[in-house]
Structures are given as structure tokens and as C-alpha cells.
Amino acid sequence: MRVVIAPDKFKGSLSAPEVASRLASGLRSGFAAKNPGEGFEATLIPVADGGEGTLDAAVGSGFTRRSATVTGPLGEPVTAEFAVRGGEAVIEMAAASGLAVLPGFGDGTAPNPATAQNATSQGTGELIRAALDLGCRHIILGVGGSANTDGGAGVLQGLGAVLLDADGQELPGGGAALARLDRIDFSNFDVRLEATEFVLASDVDNPLLGRTGAAAIFGPQKGATPDDVATLDAALARFVEVLAAEIGSEAQDAASAPGAGAAGGVGYIAIAALHAARRPGIDVVLEFTELEERLADADLVITGEGSLDEQSLLGKTPMGVARAAARTGTPVIAVCGRSTLSPEQLSESGFESVHALTDVEANVAKCIAEAGPLLEELGRHIGVRLTEISASTQDAARIDTKEHLNV
Asked: InterPro entries, alphabetically (predicted)?
């Protein structure tokens, strides 16, 4: 029996590698209890949708974890990790510029209006430079969980650009300061970028400005008040105006591009200045993990995330894995903390069955706190069901898998 375990994280409980490991432990236990001596092989492939967890997925796929000390969201030094494989790098911007690395995030004092105005993406630019120093010329930029609303201006600063006011003074970091932007000095901008290919891994399709832009939609999640949203949106518009004067009309056009509003506008600078190709995050991750190729001889794939809901249907990890499984004819089941989808929605998504922690433990708070042991219990249950499968041939195993796991 060959099983591929390809989950996303259970946010607030377990990382994707932890989810995969717990499930594998339970599966082996359940399978061995009913089939002692029978063969069971689990391949663990943590995945993500381009946001938080993308770095773990890269490392699980053979990339090497590296680290650099960079500028945190409020100017403090932070140690941020990225991943490298040959000339390719995967950068998860949340590691350098995310809400989770804000001072005070853990004790509830951040984010707040001050952080919304002043948080910078400079550390993400510095991570890109660290990858360039290692010879990487193909960089995947996974965005999500950002603290900043600076249009990616900080990324430019991290790569050597200098943002100046009308008096020739360098601007501090953060979106609010962009209201005073007069010009951008690119004389020390990293020349290696010209020979570097960027991929923006993001499912966000918001533009940079306006009612559906970065400040209006995502600013409140980062501590912005309604007045802050208006201030930040106007400052971002000034940034676009000045950048267009420096590099041309493509900077103006990029502000309206789908995905420009991702990660507080880091999507905008990726498109406008780094000429990044925007792709759905799950597609990028499944490509570098080579999931589809590794499903070729699998009898079953198990995926999942913390909550299977309407948002999951918009291209989140479980749907991406289910599409890959459909292309290889591999049965797929899902595990989750909870599911709010109807049986019809789950069936249409391609899942043979869905197993939720809330099926085992009704207390949601306990599911979050004890997700690991509960996942092992679900794994044991699934493992027992797998013993009913006749694995005399791969095709027969798949037919029986569909029959026995349709619960």
C-alpha cells in the first residue's frame, strides 16, 4: 500500500510537516494493527498555497534551508529563513515582513494603527538580495501574512533604491511616509535583478488602489483605522505616480493588475519593478514539489487543511491536490479541523471521503489545542479502512480504495 500525504498547515495548530507526520504515524499504526507484516509505504509531501508554509513545502521537496538577518517590519533586526536549490530560491515574505514577526504580536499589542502606517517590506527585499548573493537567478516569491501596506516600497529599499522627499531626505519605512515621496534614486539598485526571473505566487487578485485595493481590503487586518485606510491609499497613489515618472508607464499599468494588492502591495512592486509572472500559489508549489509525478504509482493521496470551507474552493491547497490526483487517477481523501462544505460540494471537489477532527472531538478549542493526537487518531481510523483494500495490482487497489473509502 503506497500512500502520499500532502497536506497544508492547520493554522494555529500544526505546520504542514507536522500534520503529515502525525497522519503518517496514525496510518501506519492502524494499517499494521489489522495487517501485521503487510507492506505500507507513506510519502510525506507538505504543501502550501503560496503563503505561509511555502518555505516548509520547499524544504520538504529538497530545497536547503538558509537564513539571513534582515530588517523586520518596524525596523528591528530579524532572522528570516528562505530556501535554495541550485539556482532557484523560494522566499516566503512573511518570514521577514509578516504580522507574526511584529514586536508585540504575541501579546496582542500589535498590529495597531501605528504598525499599519509604519510597517515596511524592506526585509523581503533584503532576503531577495541574500538569494542573489548565493547565485539564485530564479526566485519564487510567496506572499501572504504581511504586516506592511507600503506598496512594496520597502522591497525597493532592500534592493538598494533610495526613496527621497522634496528636501532630498531619505524617507523612513512604511506606507504612510510615501505621501511625502518626491523621487526615487535607483543608482545603487541591484543590477543582478536584470538577469533574474521572478514568480509571484499569489491567489489574491486585488489591484493596488481603491475600494478593493491593498489598504481598503487588507489594511484593517493590519491595524488600520478607516482614516488610516484613506491615508495609506492616497500615499500608495503617490508612490505609483512617482515610480511611473522614474521607470515608465508600466508602473501605472501595474497598479491595476490583478494581484498588485497582494501582501500590502508587494505584489505591485513584484509586477512593476521585478517583472514577476503572477501564478496561483498552489500551482507553483505543486510544480516544485513534483506532486503529480510522485502520484504516478500511489494507491491513495491524503490532503487537507485546518478548515475546509467556501474559501477552500477558490484554489486552496486541498483543491489543487485533488485536481492533480484526478489527472493521475489517484483516489484522494481529505482531513481537516472542521468542514463547512456540503456533501455535494465535497463530492464535486473530487474527495472520496472527508475526515474532520470535530468528528472525533466536538470541542473546537480542544481540536485546536490537541490537533496532533487527534490527527493520529484519524490516521489510525483511515489505516484500518485501508486494510480492506485488495492490493494485488495497482489498478485493483485503486478501484477498491474508491469503494472502501467512500464513507
From this structure: Glyc_kinase_flavodox-like_fold (IPR018193), Glycerate_kinase (IPR004381), Glycerate_kinase_RE-like (IPR018197), Glycerate_kinase_sf (IPR036129)
